[in-house]
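Entry:
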Amino acid sequence: ISIATPAAVTEHPMTPAPGEPSTGGQHGSTPVPDVILKGTKLRAGPLGTVALGLSCPAGESSCTGTVTVRATVALGARAKTKEKGRHVSLITLALGRFAISGGRAKTVVLRLTSRARALLAHTGMLRAYATIVAHDQAGATHVTRVAVTLRAH
């Protein structure tokens, strides 16, 4: 599977939500690239794209990395039964790269795989996980895993 480059990226100034610290991803006194996913309810577009809002903490100069959306699904004839030994598989729905300036937010548009588009067309909705692996210029790495719901258009 190849990593898709975002089809469209929109950058916005990041403002903390009420009650959020304005220092972003600082743990102790050292900032880390704690990229935040804005929203967990995702909608696939008619062309098989999904937009994710990502933000980089203000304490960072920049955050770069990858985002992967995966789901565990039941497959095969056994999946239609209530058998204990049903076959489940972890499939990648979409993945891509991002680069965000510190204190900014971007909308990253990912393209769903053909398998994901077919599965979503059949089910209408998938529960999945978005895994964000972010790096900063100092070499620090932060991994975030967020449960998301993906719906067909």
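The first strand starts at residue 9 and ends at 13.
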